[in-house]
Design goal:
The protein is an all-alpha fold. It contains 6 helices and no strands. The chain has one domain: Orthogonal Bundle (434 Repressor (Amino-terminal Domain)). The longest helix has 16 residues. The N and C termini lie close together (12 Å).
Length: 97
């Protein structure tokens, strides 16, 4: 599973857990509902400002989500490994296997 897909899964699970509809989240971050749907399908990476609003509304750790979404872009495998080490425990608690 790619980092984008992992983020998508975390976001969707947390939204459902908090009983927030895609429409409501979309209104909160001022986008159309299809934007939320595409993120949750792993087809769209949110910009930094939208990500910050999503994390705030869904009570997700913004720093961990930034690291998750940027790890996939890292070319240096050592740096990528450090990213994983930083947020690994946080992510483990959010992803249902």
């Amino acid at each position: 599973m790619s980092e984008l897909q992992t983020f998508a899964q975390i976001m969707r699970q947390k939204r459902i857990e908090l009983n927030i509809q895609q429409q409501d989240l979309a209104e909160y971050i001022r986008v159309v509902p299809v934007y939320i749907s595409r993120i949750e399908m792993g087809k769209l990476r949110p910009g930094i400002e939208k990500l910050e609003k999503i994390c705030y509304r869904l009570d997700l750790n913004f720093d961990a989500m930034i690291l998750l979404l940027t790890a996939e872009k890292e070319n240096d495998s050592h740096a990528k490994g450090l990213h994983y080490h930083i947020y690994e425990k946080y992510i483990e608690g959010l992803v249902v296997k």
